[in-house]
Amino acid sequence: MKLIKDKKFLQNVAHYIDLTNTVGGGVVQPQVHMQKRKKEAVLQVLLPGVAPEQCQVVLDKNQLTVMALHQSESTPAMQVPLFHQNFLLPPHVDFNALKVVHEGSTLRVHIPYLPQGPRFLEIEQQ
C-alpha cells in the first residue's frame, strides 16, 4: 500500500471532507449561555476557531439570529453555515441598544432591558 506524501493534497482532502460533512447535515453545536442581569441579559456563544468575520447577528423585529458562516477559499461565493440559531426576545428589550462583542472565541450579545415602572405620558392639547 502506497502512502500519499503530498501534504497539500491531504490538507485539501481533509478540508473537503469537513465541508462535505457540514453540507451533508453535519452540525457544529457551540455552547450557548444566557445570563440574566439586573439591567440586561447577555447571550454568550462559544465559537472556538471561528473568526469574527465569519459571524453574523441579525435582528428582525424581536427575533435575534446568530450564525457563523464558513467561506471556501477555492470558491469564495460559496458559504456554508457552521452554526445557526434563533432567539425570540421578550418585548421589554431596548432593541435600539443591542450591542455585539467578539472577544477571543466568544461572541457576546448584550441585550438591555427597557426601564421598568410607570411611565407618565405627555398630554397634547389641541
Helix/strand layout:
Elements: H1 7-23, E1 32-36, E2 40-46, E3 55-60, E4 63-71, E5 79-88, E6 99-103, E7 106-112
Antiparallel strand pairs: 1-2, 2-7, 3-4, 4-5, 6-7
Please tell me about this protein's structure.
By secondary structure, the protein is mainly beta. It has a domain at 29-112: Immunoglobulin-like (Sandwich). Helices cover 13% and strands 39% of the residues. It has one helix and seven strands. A four-stranded antiparallel β-sheet has the order 1-2-7-6, with no helix packed on it. Strand 3 and strand 4 form a beta hairpin. The longest helix is centred in the first third of the chain and has 17 residues, at 7-23. The mean pLDDT is 81. Belongs to the small heat shock protein (HSP20) family. InterPro entries: A-crystallin/Hsp20_dom, HSP20-like_chaperone.
Q: Judging by the overall fold, what is the CATH architecture of the domain at 29-112?
A: Sandwich
Content-based structural category: mainly beta
Mean pLDDT: 81
Largest sheet: 4 strands, antiparallel
In whole angstroms, the N-to-C terminal distance is: 92 Å
Lateral arrangement of strands in the main beta sheet: 1-2-7-6
Task: Give helix and strand order, one letter per element, not per position.
Answer: HEEEEEEE
Number of beta strands: 7
Number of helices: 1
Q: Which segments are poorly predicted (pLDDT under 50) over 5 or more consecutive residues?
A: none
Q: Could you tell me the strand content as a percent range?
A: 35-45%
In the CATH hierarchy, what is the class of the domain at 29-112?
A: Mainly Beta
- The CATH topology of the domain at 29-112 is Immunoglobulin-like
Indicate the overall shape.
Answer: elongated
Q: How helix-rich are the residues, as a percent range?
A: 10-25%
The Cα radius of gyration reads 21 Å
Family: Belongs to the small heat shock protein (HSP20) family.
Domain SHSP: 23-126
Protein name: Hsp20/alpha crystallin family protein
